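Note to self: keep these together.
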Amino acid sequence: MSKTLTWEKAGDAVVFRFHGNIESEITGTMRNEIIQALRAERSDAAVFHMGDATYIDSMGIGMFVNLHVQHRDNIRFLFCNLSDGISKAFGYVKLISFFNIRDSLNDALEELKFADL
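Structure:
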């Protein structure tokens, strides 16, 4: 795990916590870490906790769009706890309605818990 990305298992999901800036220099490595963690945990659900992320550039946004588009058939992605900076960036590029975003980690995990009912 990098110092910008940490993760832990929560029920059937893997919760990824982002810290600091999500910038082009780290997005390739970060994307690989996300996919490897999901495979290692045999999870088909990822929650992206963005409360400690302060900034995201276009490559960071592209990484999330790419993950969603390439893996949406077999992995469920949810975002939660968007910091002000991340929320503004997603809003600028009109991704607030594209991504599944919840206010809190608990809300995201609750949605996953009942998703298959």
